[in-house]
Every structure is written in C-alpha cells, then in structure tokens.
Amino acid sequence: MAEPLSSSPSSAAASFTNEWSALLECASPAQDRQRLVGLFRSVDWTRLFALAEDHGVTGHLAASLRGLEEDLVPPEIRQALADRQRARNFLTLRLTAELFRIVDRFASEGIGALAVKGPVLAMQAYGDPAMRSYGDLDLLVRQRDIRRATELMSAAGFAPAIPLSAIDAGKIPGQYLFSLPDSKLIVELHNDRTLRYFPRRLPLEDCFSRQVRVRLDSHEVPALSAEDELVLICIHGAKHFWERLMWIADVAALVSRQKNIDWQQVSASAKEVGAKRMLHMGLRLAGGLLKMPFPERIAPAVQADAVATHLAAQALTWLPAAGYAAPGLFERAAFRLRMRGSWLAAPAYLLRLSLSPTEEDWQKGSQLSQNRFLDVLRRPFRLARKYSRSSRD
To answer: For 265-314, how does the pLDDT look when each residue is reduced to its tens digit (9 = 90+)?
Structure first.
C-alpha cells in the first residue's frame, strides 16, 4: 500500500476537518465502516452534504449510509440525498438512452465512436452508471468524421457550438459541443486534435484497436479499454489540478474494480503520450489519500517518482476547497511544467497550451476570426485574465 498522504485540509478549509475526513472514508474503495460511523457522529451534516456536492461524490456519501442506523443521519439529509440520487437516476437513464442513439446513428454512417468517462466509466469503476456525477456525454471521434458527425447531430435536434463553417475553415476547438435546446443534455466530441492537455498527441487509432464493449442496461457500448481510460482520467484530473475528489475516487475505484489491468500497457500508453508523471500522480493520490491497494507491477515506479509525490502533496493544499482556493496563474504554470517532467519537454508543453487557440479565442457568437496570428496572440492574454483570480467566482 502507498504511504499515506496528509489528508488534513489547508488553513483555508480547516473549518471542515471532520467533514473532509468523513468524505475521504466514503470515497475510499477500502472503506472502514467502523471508523466511518465514528466520523459521522462528529460531523456537521449540512456542511458534509454541501462538501460532497462540491466534490461530485454525493453518490459515494449515499452509498456509505446504506445499512447504518436511521438516527445517525438527520432525516432532511437522508431525504436530500434520496432526492439527488433519484434525479441522478433519471438523468443517467436519459443520457444512456441518448448515448445508444448517437452510437447507433454514427455506426449506421460508418463513423467510429468510443464512449469515455460518463456512464461507461461509472460502469467500469463502480458497476453502476448512476454512481458518478456527470451531466454530459463524451465520445472520441476521428477528425475526418467530425463534419458528418456534426450534420447528424444537427439533424437529431442538437445545436452545435462549432458551426460547419469553422470546421470547413480548419478551426480546432477545445471540444465539439452539442446541446439539446430546452434541455440540459450536452454531448461533446473529442479526438487527438482537441485533447490539447495530452502532452503528446493521443494515438487515436491505437485506442480504437484496443477498444472494449461495456454493457449498459441491455446494450453494449464501444469504449476505451480500462488501461487507456485510466491514463485519460489521470490526464483529465491533472488538467484540472485535481481540484475535486471525484476524479481521485474514479482512479481508485477503476484500479480496485478492474482486477485484470495490464500495467505494462498502462505504462506504455502513458509513456507514448508523455503522461507518466500525470499517471503516477493520479495513482499516488488514490493510494495515499483513499487507501487504494497499490498494484505490485506499478508501485515501484510510482514510489520512485519523487516529483509526482511532491505534486500530489501540493494538490492537497487546495483539494479540500473544491476549486474555491485554486492555485494562481504562476502557480498553475509551475505545476504544469513539473507535471510534464522533462526540462526540455515541459516548457514546450506549457508554451503549446498557452498559444494553441480554441473557440474562445477565434469565435465570438457567429463570427469567426480569420487571422490565426491574432488568435494565437489573444490566447495568453485571455488566459491571464481568466486565471488571475485565486479562487472560483
């Protein structure tokens, strides 16, 4: 097992030490029920519920309460959790039904698609599509198929955030986002060109060749292998500076539930995209914070990565606050540099992130910028304005 990381909140979050400890126990795949009951007896339940919502782990909290004494939890908290779980169940049913329709629609047109995160990750990590908090669907689709996929999504009633004119002009957004009018349903299409936070370009064809079928209800959905999904969620957590416990809990649950993970393939996939330190950091957080049993095949490499251990400890200074005590602009830049690893590759990675324009840089309403140089120039100034604040609005 990994050496435990300090799980105490920073001074800014010291007021909810008991609640934070209880939430960590709820999210752990090696949960100690006796300890959890003791922690529950000392928490402020309103504060614990709010903290669970901020961290996206109300499902973990609700699951942890099953079988416990009724009088241990205030009835209003039980009711609030039941209401949240009911709403999540309905949303999950709606999202999975839409996922089936989209995948079938794309397949009928010869468009390959792989589901990532969302209900598929919930099944791979927890065996329950309603366990995780998510509000959209994410799919990997080849860039050559994006135009036709956009036409199909539009024909199905979805409004594309990226117009066909931008696709025809060769503009690459952060994601191809689609929303259903008068609904909260959102679908995002990604590929090796939109996933900028991968240090090196994702070998998309290799991911398609290693795809698996994940059963959701009575359907099977094409998805990333557990090995590729693990690398992806570690990069995703690193992209967001591990500001929410949900992302760490997903790593811990996926590794704990998927007993036949090919760790040689995990290491190879992480190395190919330049994300070994991001992988190590995700595993270090999951093992040290949530008591995830450490696989013997990967443990020596993780424990030998002193920088990943240091970065994991640094992330814990802002993690409990769920984004309300986020690192500032320069701290973010330094963190990204060290996450990338090599002194040669790290500056190039940070420079690419700082200068690769997305739709926020080249699109204003229906107007598209025609000057790529200005798009590149605008981006660092926009990022500086965006991240100059030290906490969430």
So the answer is: 999 999 999 999 999 999 999 999 999 988 899 999 999 999 999 999 99
Alpha carbon of 49 to those of 53, 71, 199: distances in Å? 6, 16, 36
Q: 129: exposed, middle or buried (C-beta count within 10 Å: 0-12, 13-18, 19+)?
A: buried
**Hey, what amino acid is at 173?**
P
> What is the spatial distance between Cα 98 and Cα 110, in angstroms, rounded to a whole number?
18
Among the listed ranges 173-182, 274-283, 320-329, 379-388, which one has the minimum average pLDDT value? 379-388
Question: Which residues, other chains included, contact 137 with Cβ-Cβ below 8 Å and sequence gap of 6+?
Answer: 95, 98, 99, 102, 115, 118, 119, 186, 187, 188
Burial 84-122 (b: 16+ CB within 10 A, else e): bbeebeebbeebbebbbebbebbeeeebbbbbbbbbbbb
Q: Are 357 and 170 in contact (CB under 8 A)?
A: no
Q: How far apart are CA 380 and CA 280, in angstroms?
A: 29
Q: How far apart are CA 90 and CA 130, in angstroms?
A: 9
Report which of 285, 377, 287, 266 is spatially closest to residue 339, judged by C-alpha positions: 285
Quick check: 302 and 294 in contact, CB under 8 A? yes
Measure the CA angle with vertex 249, ends 141 and 42; round to 5°: 150
For residue 222, what are the β-bridge partners? 213
CA distance 57 to 120: 17
pLDDT tens profile 227-272: 999 999 999 999 999 999 999 999 999 999 999 999 999 999 999 9
Q: How many helices (H) and strands (E) does the chain have?
A: 19, 9
Query: H/E element holding 382?
Result: helix 372-387
Rounded to whole angstroms, the Cα distance separating 351 from 338 reads 14
What does DSSP assign to residue 345?
H
User: What is the Cα–Cα distance from 119 to 136, expressed in whole angstroms?
Assistant: 9
Q: What is the DSSP letter of 197?
A: T
pTM: 0.90
3-state secondary structure of 189: strand
